[in-house]
Design brief:
By secondary structure, this protein is an all-alpha fold. It is about 75% helix and about 5% strand. Strands 1-2 form a two-stranded antiparallel sheet. Strand 1 and strand 2 form a beta hairpin. The chain is globular and about 85 Å long. The chain starts with 8 loop residues before the first helix and ends with a helix.
């Protein structure tokens, strides 16, 4: 295994920032249907479920290929795999303009989704340049490339309103192809690959790479990421449609307000990485799930009219979240989800340093599948339940389950390491007070 400390700081910074820029462009392409999908929905006359499937289809491809791409990045080097992913996605995005029917759009969207697979490649590539005590920060900065969703929300509506959604796909395809060329020209092979080639060591076999996936802990991390990342992607795709439907905003304004969620849910991932290095990823995850549960509970409350039988007559009450408090709540939700995204990936190089590609790939895959499944579920809930806020009801259930599983798993570990905890019946504060009292 390589030693990241022998790599110069300049090389580390170049690898990290080039990867972050490339991932930002990939993410902008991956979420392109959050904006152009609105016009396509009108063009084809789609219902809510069909729209949810359309915007989620790229997420499916980008999720399923993450495991394989993460392993390839470990075996053949992130530099080559990253550039290849971007070129393939650029070609698919360019061809999007030739689709005319709903099935054609779904097939095209599958290939556009290749861009989302860049995440597991970048995690495997960037982590190899940094020592363990700095990987949380480095991966947090890389993961901030999620801000590409906000780039699409801010810029794509202007292009689409002026010239139509086809021009958006052409511009985004060209940008991705240019990024692939720049990344390959200016990046370097990661230290472990260079060392392996020098020593003639063969890469780890696929079977060895998959060994850690037998651990339940990996799948617990995957559930966390299903919420913090899958929920982020789902809302990044869904919010423009939600805002135009609930608050009757135009697509430009909806895109700007949607960016109020996407930007903190992306950039503050850097803060999450720093905090995970300094105070520990476990504390950050408790903050994430606790605050997210409060936010989703409040956001889930539907626009409601009450009639109370008063003493002198009926009293009418109207409870609803206005657009301003809604924007504040989704900003807070996005901020804490961004902390959680960094915290989850802080665990992986620490627990599985030799299997970052495979473990990071499967966690990223499950998280990405959340971005595929949840928008479809949002559309189905809209069609079946008929309540716009049902999407936040689902997210509340998901975060509550994640918090419960994490807490009980941690308590189980504490009892295993400190059996005496299970026999104590007094409060810890009482025990401390007795221990510190005079005369003892």
């Amino acid at each position: 295994m390589h030693e990241p400390n022998i790599v110069s700081r300049g090389e580390q910074q170049r690898a990290m920032w080039l990867s972050t820029f490339a991932f930002t462009v990939c993410f902008a392409v991956w979420t392109i249907f959050s904006i152009i999908g609105i016009q396509i929905k009108q063009q084809l006359g789609l219902n809510e479920t069909q729209f949810g499937l359309l915007i989620a289809t790229p997420i499916l491809t980008g999720s399923l290929i993450r495991l394989l791409l993460g392993i390839w990045a470990d075996q053949y080097g992130g530099r080559r795999v990253f550039a290849a992913v971007m070129l393939c996605a650029a070609m698919a995005t360019w061809m999007l303009g030739y689709a005319h029917t709903y099935p054609q759009f779904l097939v095209a969207a599958l290939f556009v989704g290749i861009a989302g697979g860049a995440f597991s490649v970048g995690v495997a590539y960037v982590s190899k340049w940094f020592p363990t005590n700095r990987q949380g920060t480095a991966l947090g900065i890389f993961g901030a490339g999620n801000v590409g969703a906000a780039v699409t929300k801010l810029l794509a509506p202007m292009v689409m309103v002026a010239s139509g959604w086809i021009l958006v796909s052409k511009i985004w395809a060209i940008a991705l192809a240019l990024t692939a060329a720049l990344f390959y020209l200016f990046s370097q092979e990661d230290p472990s690959l260079a060392q392996r080639r020098k020593s003639g060591t063969k890469p780890m076999s696929f079977r060895e790479q998959m060994m850690p996936l037998r651990n339940l802990q990996v799948w617990r991390f995957s559930l966390y990421y299903f919420f913090v990342f899958g929920g982020f992607v789902a809302l990044a795709l869904w919010l423009p449609h939600f805002l135009t439907g609930v608050y009757k905003l135009d697509v430009r304004t909806a895109g700007i307000l949607g960016a109020c969620y996407s930007i903190p849910a992306s950039l503050f991932r850097i803060v999450g990485g720093v905090l995970s290095d300094r105070i520990g990823a476990r504390k950050v995850m408790y903050w994430t799930f606790g605050v997210s549960a409060i936010c989703t509970f409040l956001l889930a409350y539907p626009d409601t009219h009450y009639v109370v039988k008063g003493i002198t007559g009926d009293i009418s009450l109207h409870l609803a979240i206005g657009v301003v408090p809604f924007t504040v709540l989704v900003f807070v939700l996005g901020f804490f989800m961004s902390l959680g995204k960094a915290a989850v990936y802080k665990h992986i190089p620490v627990y599985y340093p030799r299997h970052v590609g495979s473990v990071g790939g499967v966690v990223g895959m499950i998280g990405g599948l959340g971005g595929f499944i949840l928008p479809i579920a949002f559309g189905v809930l809209n069609d079946v339940v008929g309540v716009w806020t049902s999407c936040f009801m689902l997210l509340f259930v998901l975060v509550a389950a994640s918090l419960a599983w994490m807490h009980f798993a941690i308590r189980r570990m504490e009892r295993r390491h400190f059996p005496q905890i299970g026999g104590e019946t007094d409060l810890p504060e009482v025990m401390d007070a007795v221990a510190q009292s005079p005369g003892r």
